[in-house]
Amino acid sequence: MDNAIGSVNIFNLNSLTSSLALDACHLSEALIEEISALLRAGLCLQFSSSHAKDSSTVTNAGVEAMRRCIERGEIEPERPLVILTVDTLLEPENIQCYVPVSYDHIKSTCESFGINLIIKIVSPPIHQQLMVLFAGVQKLFSSSMSGRSGDCSVIWKIDTMRRSLKAIKESLPLKYQQATWASVTGSRSYGIGEMQAKYAESRGKRS
Q: How many CB atoms lie within 10 A of CB 90?
């Protein structure tokens, strides 16, 4: 009985697990369909991936959307899919070890699906790396020189990503240079993800 001292409420864990898995499947399918709609509309996509949980979820959905659209003849196989990872050169050892493995897995998967993948790991130029910014009093200290562009996430990640995408687009056929591009990434809508999004928006960097 529920009111008995020391009683235990028993529930079906398998049923709960199945329900959670089904919900996750529905959310995944909805995400894949949203990305597919962008592809059918003629957009070219660039995914920003740290190879962690949030961005990997969205990147994997992007790869699957490309696969389905190509298979159904809804887009041309030549449509580029760009995946960029920024290595700030400050990542912990476990991340440095994992990212190349994930990189190779994405590359081999896209090759097997016939996806025109352009995937790169890029880093900030030397004049924007930590010790140079530190020595130039551009980081770590609040100064009149740092200004709005002195934020780490902007200098090391967003600006580096934009430069890399610009260079990639310039190397593509004119058709894709002139196409509409969408940059896609994954972040949680609560907690740290929400804080990061609000911070980026306050800096005028959210797209």
A: 11
